Amino acid sequence: MFIINCPFCGERDQSEFSAGGEAHIVRPKQPTELSDDEWADFLFMRKNIKGIQFERWNHAHGCRKWFNVIRDTSNDKIHAVYKMGEKPPSI
Amino acid sequence: MKNNYSIISLIKNSFTYHENWQQAWRDPEPKKEYEAVIVGGGGHGLATAFYLAKKHNMKNIAVVEKGWIGGGNTGRNTTIIRSNYLWDASAGLYDHALKLWENLSQEINYNVMFSQRGVMNLAHNLQDVRDLKRRTHANRLNGIDAVWLSTEEVKKFCPIINTSPDIRYPVLGGTLQRRAGTARHDAVAWGYARGADAMGVDIIQNCEVKGIKRNGDTVEGIETTKGFIKTKKIGVVAAGHSSVIANMAGIRLPLESKPLQALVSEPVKPIIDTVVMSNAVHAYVSQSDKGELVIGAGTDAYVSYTQRGSHDIVEGTLKAILELYPIFSRMKMLRQWGGIVDICPDASPIISKTNIKGLYFNCGWGTGGFKATPGSGDLFAHTIANNEPHKLNAAFNLNRFVSGDLVDEHGAAAVAH
């Protein structure tokens, strides 16, 4: 339970948002040429980091826009919030 | 087994005011090398060590635990045991565990207080009714006891449930597995620890794994806070922290770790003598022998290792509990806690070899690992000892995420994930 600073709406309770998991997983450019191993890697394998994680959130009960968050999963402290398509800020 | 627990030992020790009981397990320093090392001293890890020593004669082994025995998810769950899973692979796995539960106290000479009080799963809408009836049939085809109960039969079996048709999610019926029930979770960890220790297994507490040493595709040992331990076989049973260990070995797993919460009420006189679970509203409740209501809530939707959960999750669960059991409206909740569960995309576990020789993973149990403890340990021990899975855990390999042969128990199991 924590507060997320939505880049469009400002600070709101986490319960207004839905978590979208690990960020910056790029969809393969040529899906038809992917091997089964590469598909498994893209679809299922996750870093699941204990510590600083880059992740996606959606303000589901607000502006409904997606954005990125840098959060420490060991203590739920949020270090930065940035919009989709932007380069992650250095922390 | 040395120092066997029995009625005679109880009487004998009562003469000395119970001050001369032996320590249940030793507290050894790690040796330089072991035949195998189990990472994680929870129920599953200790059971693995127990069956490695007992059935596969591997006695020069160690269990390393970063905290203390019984301090992780083993001591944080709601102790529900059942095997009424939909798919054949899951039914085989969980019923194997349930059969081991039925004789566990005798097998490890430790009273785990296994109580086959039944587990009832409620249906709240037409789709629930269809799904649960289908699961009942599937269970019976797999030799697992299951019956469908009408609303009246639900009320008869557990009279405090509000079966009025005008509640938000009315009870349209339910399923009952009578062989299911609960056990004392701490006793399971302590009993397996004592049993493994008696056969020579070193249980090393306060020893955190810091790295996995590899030579190409083969493991050579583990770096720990108590120094380097050489071994050719590493069995990782680290629950929520499985990915952390996997990252040390340079591999990724299909897991996300999330907080799962539970809470207990103040103790009251016996009021509910079974376990009632409700998939649709995500509320489940039983009563401990101490009299506390034991209530399980849901997981948070985001990755976190904080061992605490969000308040709104507890609030949602308690709202559902109150609608189903208006009698609890003035109960006070005593304690609330969280544990970190590792969830697979198909909500089924992984008991598997990896691409690295000598590295095995037993993980992905998500929200329902406790019920499988004896079976999980037995099958993981078989996998480590023979370097091949047992037929009961063959479907639960890591390769299923490549082949696509998933064991999809999302929602099909008796509880929403």
Can you give a write-up of this model?
The complex is a heterodimer of chains A (91) and B (417). Chain A is mainly β. In chain A, 9% of the residues lie in helices and 37% in strands. Chain A has one domain (3-83): Folate-binding superfamily (Folate-binding fold, 2-Layer Sandwich). Chain A is built from 1 helix and 6 strands; from the N terminus they run E-E-E-H-E-E-E. Chain A has a 4-stranded antiparallel beta sheet, with no helix packed on it. Chain B is of the alpha/beta class. Chain B is 28% helix and 24% strand. Chain B has 11 helices and 20 strands. Chain B has helices at 7-14, 43-55, 88-101, 104-108, 126-141, 151-157, 185-198, 242-249, 311-324, 373-386, 400-403, and strands spanning 33-34, 36-39, 61-64, 80-81, 119-123, 147-149, 173-177, 181-182, 202-204, 209-215, 218-224, 227-231, 234-236, 256-265, 275-278, 283-287, 293-299, 333-343, 350-353, 359-363. In chain B, strands 6-7-5-15-16-17-14-18 form an 8-stranded mixed beta sheet. Chain B has a 6-stranded mixed beta sheet with strand order 9-3-2-13-20-19. In chain B, helix 2 (43-55) packs across helix 10 and helix 3 (88-101) packs across helix 10 (373-386). The longest helix of chain B is centred in the N-terminal third of the chain and has 16 residues, at 126-141. The radius of gyration of chain B is 21 Å and the shape is globular.
Helices, strands, pairings?
The complex is a heterodimer of chains A (91) and B (417).
Chain A: E1 3-6, E2 10-13, E3 18-22, H1 36-43, E4 52-58, E5 66-72, E6 77-83
Chain B: H1 7-14, E1 33-34, E2 36-39, H2 43-55, E3 61-64, E4 80-81, H3 88-101, H4 104-108, E5 119-123, H5 126-141, E6 147-149, H6 151-157, E7 173-177, E8 181-182, H7 185-198, E9 202-204, E10 209-215, E11 218-224, E12 227-231, E13 234-236, H8 242-249, E14 256-265, E15 275-278, E16 283-287, E17 293-299, H9 311-324, E18 333-343, E19 350-353, E20 359-363, H10 373-386, H11 400-403
Parallel strand pairs in B: 1-12, 2-3, 2-13, 3-9, 5-15, 13-20
Antiparallel strand pairs in B: 4-8, 5-7, 6-7, 10-11, 11-12, 14-17, 14-18, 15-16, 16-17, 19-20
Helix pairs in contact in B: 2-7, 2-10, 3-10
